[in-house]
Write a structure and sequence with these properties.
Elements (H helix, E strand, L loop, with lengths): L3 H6 L10 E5 L8 E8 L8 E5 L12 H9 L2 E5 L20 H16 L4 H4 L3 E5 L1 H12 L6 E5 L7 H16 L2 H5 L6 H12 L20 E6 L8 H9 L4 E5 L6 H4 L1 H16 L1
Parallel strand pairs: 3-4, 3-5, 5-6, 6-7, 7-8
Antiparallel strand pairs: 1-2, 2-4
Length: about 280
């Protein structure tokens, strides 16, 4: 099976001219940040917002046109952004390591700060969906747990709620590919500082202290509708991830996709969009 990092690296090209930037003030978990973002269907001012949270090696560009396609299907506006360290956002300083709780920091501090900077008010947040993939799926779960009144629901795709051996093994393999093949050059098309993006993600996932990371306790705080999706052929995680979500979030619905790896929006976009559209439609009735 092709390594998902290689597949993702071949997916798109950075187009900086299409991006806008938001300035976030310093907070307890971070210094001042410049965040790259783009709107999808921006002129649909009265439509609900879907916020897209990318994977551990992702950025705006690496989503390709999937947010646009999904938002058109759902009749929503989309907010797509590159997290700090990725895309054209503020890079990670070379001597900085992400802490074990980095995803909690993203959900608790950075996403709300971005929403504030973009003047997305309480009324809009109460109609907002968060859609996250991989690490972004974990951040979406944490956002739903920490800010239960500031979204209407969440969709998480191949999320992580604890660390599995398969994840660590695949991430170690990706490091070898990054350092011995053209993967670094390919990823460099999507990140202003590719080493910032890669080693920020790779170092924390391979840190022995991260093996104890888990957000299973936080899942019980999720009150809003939740859809969790996983491919049967995912080599970054098993069905135990979304089965754990279902065990702790009674209202969660699961979708398990055949012939699909870690990135359903690339491997099975039709099935993925159908599942999300059906779920969102059911919550509107």
């Amino acid at each position: 099976m092709q390594n998902p990092a290689l597949a993702a690296a071949a997916a798109a090209a950075v187009t900086p001219a299409a991006s806008s930037f938001a300035e976030l003030p310093a907070a307890a978990s971070h210094g001042p940040l410049r965040i790259e973002y783009r709107w999808v269907n921006e002129t649909a001012a009265d439509a609900p917002i879907a916020v897209f949270l990318h994977e551990g090696l992702g950025s705006i560009a690496m989503w390709r046109d999937w947010p646009q396609t999904l938002c058109e299907r759902l009749g929503m506006r989309g907010l797509v952004y590159s997290r700090p360290g990725y895309g054209l956002s503020t890079p990670r300083a070379r001597d900085v390591k992400w802490p074990v709780h980095f995803m909690t920091d993203q959900a608790r501090d950075i996403l709300p700060a971005l929403l504030n900077a973009l003047a997305i008010d309480t009324r809009e947040r109460k109609r907002m969906w968060v859609v996250g993939h991989s690490d972004g799926g974990s951040i979406a779960l944490l956002y739903a747990a920490l800010h239960p009144d500031e979204l209407v629901g969440a969709v998480v795709i191949a999320p992580h709620v604890f660390v599995e051996d398969i994840s660590v093994e695949s991430i170690a393999q990706t490091k070898q590919l990054y350092e011995t093949t053209d993967l670094r050059a390919k990823l460099g098309r999507y990140h202003a500082d590719v080493d910032s993006a890669f080693y920020g993600w790779n170092d924390i996932w391979l840190n022995p202290a991260f093996r104890q990371w888990s957000i299973t306790a936080e899942l019980a705080s999720i009150r809003q509708p939740l859809l969790a999706i996983q491919g049967h052929d995912d080599n970054y995680g098993t069905m135990a991830q979304i089965d754990t979500i279902a065990a702790r979030v009674p209202q969660a619905q699961l979708v398990k996709l055949d012939a699909c790896g870690h990135s359903p929006h690339r491997d099975a976009p039709g099935q993925l969009n159908d599942a999300i559209a059906a779920f969102v439609s059911s919550q509107r009735q």
